[in-house]
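Ticket #4471: structure output looks truncated?

Reporter: J.K.
Steps to reproduce: submitted the chain below (353 residues) through the standard prediction queue, then opened the result file.
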Amino acid sequence: MSLDREIELLSTEFFHPLAGEVIFTERNKNSLRSFSWSRGVKALTYLLVSSAYDKNAYIEGGAGSLAASLDYALSKKPMWLIDMFGTDSTGRPICNRLFRRINPERKRGGVVKIMLNQAFFSHCRIEIFLDDRSANLADLKWLLELFHQDVEALIPTIDLLKLPGSELVKSFKRDGNTSELVFDTLGDLDSYFGSVHLSFLESAHGRSIVGSVAHSWWPLLAPQQERENARKFLSYANISYLYGGKSPLDLWVSSYYRRFGVQSKRIADAYFYRDLWVYDDYIFQVFLPMSCIRDVDYAFREADSLEEFDRESFITSVLYKPAEATLVISRDRILSDNLRRSVMKLFKDSVPL
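Returned output as attached by the reporter:
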């Protein structure tokens, strides 16, 4: 690998008993075995560097991600992949057995997850050379940080004030990697957040989404539309929701999302992370006046069933009742990773209500 201008893979050497020889490839069109610095090769390089640092490493992503590029290559077997890893004595590509894929070609929607097949890879060891010297753990950690920056640079930046619904923003301010958007009503914030949600998914910012909320009313107000939305969103990302509400409606909403493939669970502890979403490196938090929180809680407690839920009253008396609502969006990779792990630990360990 070279760092003259940016992270670049210059050449590879591969040996496995099935190949029967050392296979050398280089980034040179005139070589017998060669590759170009394509998205698939970038994804493979990132996976191999990650696996050299941590044998349990993996990459994952939805449409447009680097993981999807490598997934496509593993499905189509382009010549660079055959050149790099060779074939066995029967002519089958060795790369078929070097990698494990979960949800290959994203046939179930959501994301594809790719890792090394450790059982097959036991015959191999990964050694990374950085400008002609063997990379140590500190080098690998540094490389991964640079890779992360490079990957993020490929993702288009979202202008929060140019999304549909941005005219509803009452005030906006930014401080470094944190933006604060204030709305006149919860309904205005809710409408705008729907645009943010879709934009982040379509731009590959939302490959892995977790949410911890008290209540969700989208399925109650427009169940058919939300069903279509859920299926569309799952084609982009893995989605997990925790609900802290204790009403029958909260249980219904949780079950509703599960039917369409969303990991959804209602537990008491979700109140600890009320109205929090994590989209990859981004953290979304909603802050409401206590009067608005009480109104939402009351509306959910009062209905014992979906039939008893008064949609019109909820829209006029809760969503569009004047009450300043604030959406805070921040970008912090370390904090987002910690929050995601904390929420998913609750998801895994807590008993459903």
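Triage note (M.O.): checked the attachment and the full token line is present. The chain is about 40% helix and 20% strand.
Status: closed, working as intended.
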